[in-house]
Amino acid sequence: MKNILITGGxxxxxxxxxxxxxxxxxxxxxxxxxKLTYAGNLANLRDIEDRPNYTFVRADICDFxxxxxxxxxxxxxxxxxxxxxxxVDRSILDPFTFxxxxxxxxxxxxxAAKIYWESLPEGYEGKLFYHISTDEVYGALELTDPEGIExxxxxxxSSSEHHLAFGRKFFLETTKYNPHSPYSASKASSDHxxxxxxxxxxxxxxxxxCSNNYGPYxxxxxxxxxxxxxxxxxKPLPVYGKGENVRDWLFVEDHARAIDLxxxxxxxxxxxxxxxFNEWKNIDLIRVVIRTVDRLLGNPEGHxxxxxxxxxxxxxxxxxxxxDSRKLQAELGWEPSLQFExxxxxxxxxxxxxxxxxxxxxxxxxxxxxxxxxxxx
Length: 377
Ligand code: NAD
Ligand code: DAU
Prior knowledge:
Blueprint: E1 2-7, H1 12-24, E2 28-34, E3 54-58, H2 64-73, E4 78-81, H3 88-93, H4 95-119, E5 128-134, H5 160-164, H6 182-201, E6 205-210, E7 212-214, H7 223-233, E8 237-240, E9 246-251, H8 252-265, E10 271-274, E11 279-281, H9 282-297, E12 308-311, H10 326-332, H11 340-353, H12 355-361, H13 365-374
Parallel strand pairs: 1-2, 1-4, 2-3, 4-5, 5-6, 6-10, 7-9, 8-12
Antiparallel strand pairs: 9-11
Bound molecules: nicotinamide-adenine-dinucleotide (NAD) and 2'deoxy-thymidine-5'-diphospho-alpha-D-glucose.
């Protein structure tokens, strides 16, 4: 029996990781620890909440005494740490909350695990602190490579060979950290603390840096679910700047599979980049989302294009993210399972079939936040 603590398990990616572990490992006890901020939602886990190998605990990772109690009480062997403030726009409005949760919260969890694991006769043997981080810590890539090739190379899902053939720039595990937003600065800081606990105390740790995720259960402040919901409601689609920024998109279940593989087979103290070589310019991606939603709603082709509204750019908006995940592919054999077109179709269908889920969370506080963010646009 292994006791695994998953933090942030009521959020978007965390809920997919919790579901995968609870279903796949009946011999593990999965403890989902989440503060249930605006982004945490237990409705994401209805299908597994009664399982005998699952426990939910509502707690704040910044509460150090509570972290010590939970880790000791559940005799935790492994931690998969996803709890965080995750939205760049919110970090621009409120950087303190990001420093508190992402930096101090991670430190509190590390120290609580250290005290418990060092108190055991076996010490760190069989233990692991796995920290989930982001590609944003590497900073931003240029839109145009030195060779004069503009990114993205094409706007269809393409293979790594196709992308790598022209010596284009990607984030590697060795790329120097260069975060720009308060969100990415807080994530970078937490990554450094995790590595410091390995280097200083010998704690077995792992860090992975993943590209943009999309799929079911993502809070509708992030680009894809926000736009699906706005198209459904006939509301404007606020495109930041010229819509030329590039993101590298991965279906969330593929990220969860990578986390499972790395948790079990990754080498402690290592870093792995996770991404699907799937770059899209925002405006091209938005057009795919519009076409898909219109088709599934039975609207004429191009019907919702009129909702595209160019708005003031995000402050310090990173131009391009692109992950090179060949290390993970070569060492552990991971590959994304879905082509982007399939992933988007699945995602749009899910949001259209689960309107109650989205309506429940887009009332109250979220609407107030949305007005504050976009009211002047
Ligand atoms: P999310 O915002 O959907 O979920 C975050 C979860 O953490 C929520 O359930 C929230 O209630 C919980 N939480 C927040 N503060 C907490 C606290 N103080 N104590 C306990 N729980 C708290 O985020 P997500 O998109 O699922 O991201 C999960 C992790 O993956 C984050 O660490 C993020 O930085 C990282 N990441 C996200 C992406 C992405 O595209 N979404 C990509 C790469 C990495
Ligand atoms: O790269 C990984 C990161 O991806 C994660 O670490 C973050 O937690 C996650 O939120 C995501 O960050 P982004 O800032 O890239 O995601 P977001 O969905 O907010 O925006 C995607 C792109 O779309 C970005 O270039 C900004 C743009 N955008 C976003 C919103 C919400 C718009 O043009 N309009 C919008 O309304």
